[in-house]
Specification:
The structure is a homodimer.
Chain A (H helix, E strand, L loop, with lengths): L1 E3 L2 H9 L3 E3 L5 E2 L5 E4 L7 E10 L3 E6 L2 E7 L9 E3 L5 E2 H6 L2 E2 L4 E3 L11 E3 L5 E10 L14 E5 L5 E4 L5 H10 L9 H10 L1
Parallel strand pairs in A: 2-15, 11-12
Antiparallel strand pairs in A: 1-4, 3-11, 4-10, 5-8, 5-9, 5-13, 6-7, 13-14, 13-15
The structure holds a DNA duplex (24 and 24 nucleotides).
DNA sequence: CCCTTTTCACCTAGGTGGTAAGAT
DNA sequence: ATCTTACCACCTAGGTGAAAAGGG
């Protein structure tokens, strides 16, 4: 009923333990979440959103080339952890017509950014997280859009788990980002050598 | 109840008879439509949209430095002329909180683009148009969003009238666009001379 | 002849990781 | 010592009018 798009890429990152940068002004995820939905009622209305929850109750530290647990996580986290898909609410037909992507979702460590509800997800650095997809049927007149209600279906793909960081720890992850994120093209080795080769 | 933002700029263009470029792939308006709404019920739901209607039934031609009428307009125009604000539907509080802008609205002469409903407004070159703002209270469960219903309020500002063109006719209009549209900065005279002056 | 389309250099706007400085 | 922030060069993505080419 729900498929994770770009699964092979997610799997490559997951094999090395995915890291996602968080900044004060907010940083996009890469890879970003994208799903294909099916089995909805084409004429019913749904809201679709993503939230991000702690996988465990530990700090993590990158030490000797490995991620290791280290002490307890801090108490209740302040800040928003829910991101409503900008198309919400919309019909089942709309959600099934094309992939449902969260390319503009941003992660931040700025607790004050909780004001921008629906803009950024507030996380804590060096904690491990699991993004989840929620598909909620909205019966018109049932209060505000978006927040998971009794009629919500929730989906979580372990391949999308990540550790929030303020700087990359594992060089393998850095290289995967550089190789696959178009905005990091400036850091690709092959980029210069393409032209260097054609000059000889 | 509705105010046209950036009125002084619109007035400057209007004094010279505003022109708006239309292209196959769609061209943004400049200036773009932006309104401030007040007097709505903060908890009621509204859809907000813009449409563009013919001002008269004539072709226009730019001749001898003046716009002159010239023959009858063509019959019924095919294609979409309605642009739903991307935030629609939303609460009165939302619409009143900040200006309601249509900066991404695009104008086209491509009749086949009528597929992209809500993306582009299809117009005919060398005809004079009046954009209109529609604010529709949406009672939940009343069919689809957006199209003006019996409970719609409509507003039209004569200062926003324009003639659709595929290339600018009046050099005064071209200069106003260059002077005020940030994306046309490359054509501003002052741009190079700023540096030239500081070299002496 | 008049109008439209295509292509271009030049911009705005903003997403990358690297790096060095700052904070604890 | 470890983690965070600010700034940077370098990229993607796409909005400008000019000018030349295309079309009826």
């Amino acid at each position: 009923q729900v498929m994770l798009n770009n699964y092979p890429l997610w799997a490559k990152f997951h094999k090395h333990q995915t890291e996602m940068i968080i900044t004060k002004q907010g940083r996009r995820m890469f890879p970003f979440l994208s799903f294909s939905l099916s089995g909805l009622n084409p004429v019913a209305h749904y809201s679709v959103c993503v939230d991000v929850v702690l996988v465990d109750q530990h700090h993590w530290r990158y030490q000797g080339g490995k991620w290791v647990q280290c002490g307890k996580a801090e108490g209740n986290m302040p800040g928003n952890r829910l991101y409503l898909h900008p198309d919400s609410p919309n019909t089942g037909a709309h959600w099934m017509r094309q992939e449902v992507s969260f390319g503009k979702l941003k992660l931040t460590n700025n607790k004050g950014a909780a004001n921008n509800v629906g803009q950024m997800i507030v996380l804590q650095s060096l904690h491990k997280y699991q993004p989840r997809l929620h598909v909620t049927e909205v019966k018109e007149g049932e209060g505000e859009e978006g927040y998971p209600s009794p009629h919500t279906h929730t989906f979580a793909f372990p391949e999308t788990q990540f550790i929030a960081v303020t700087a990359y720890q594992n060089a393998d992850i850095t290289q995967l980002k550089i190789d696959h994120n178009p905005f990091a093209k400036g850091f690709r080795d092959n980029f210069d050598s393409m032209y260097a080769a054609s000059e000889g």
